[in-house]
Amino acid sequence: MRPASKKYYYVVAAAVLFFVAAGMFLIPRVITVVQKSVPLPTAIDPNFSTQVNECFIPVAAAYGYSLRIVSGFRSMAQQQQVYDQGRLENGVVVSEASPGHSLHNYGFAVDVADIWRGYNINWPRLIAIGAYCGLGNGGVGDYPHFEYRGGLVTADFAAGKRPPLLTLPCAIMDARAKASKPLTLKDLQGCAAPKF
Ligand SMILES: [Zn+2]
Questions:
Q1: Ligand 1 mean position to 92 CA, how many Å?
Q2: What is the Å distance from ligand 1's center to 175 Cα?
Q3: Are residues 97 and 162 in the same domain?
Q4: Rounded CA gap, 163 and 153, in Å?
C-alpha cells in the first residue's frame, strides 16, 4: 500500500482543526439556547388568583359551598415534599406529579375543600362552577384540584409559556369583590351562570 502523501495529512489536520474550532464556537451557543431559563414562579399567578377569588369561590358560595384553598402555589421543593409523601415518607401517596409536573408549581392551580363538609361535597356541581369560571378540574381521583392551562400542556409552562388571560364572566363579580360584598344567586341571574 502506498503511504499517503504529506499533503493529505495537512488537509486532514486542517479539517480537524476547523471542526474543533467550529465546535468550540458553536457548542457553548447551543448550550446557552438549551439552558436559556425562564425565572421560576414564586407565587400564585395574579390573573388566575383573581378568577379564583372573584368568580370561582363567590359563585360557589352563592350555591352554598364554603370553599377554602387547601393548597395553592407550591415551589419545586414543596412539590418534592408532596411527591415524596407515601413514597419516601410514611403516609399515603397524595400526588402523582414530581416537581415541575404540576400546575401548582407555576401558580395556575388550587386545591379546595369545603370548610364544613370537607371533601364530602357535590363535585359535579363544583366542576360546572369551575368550568363557568374558565377553570379545569383534576378529574377522577383529583376532584379538589382546579387549574387553568388555556390550551397549554405542562411542558409549555415548564418552558416559560403562559396561557392567555382569563376574564371574569360577569361584570358584577368585579363590583362585588371591590365592595367586599357577597355574590348572590340574584346577581348571577343575568350572568349565564350554571343552574342547578
Ligand atoms: Zn392540585
A1: 16
A2: 29
A3: yes
A4: 10
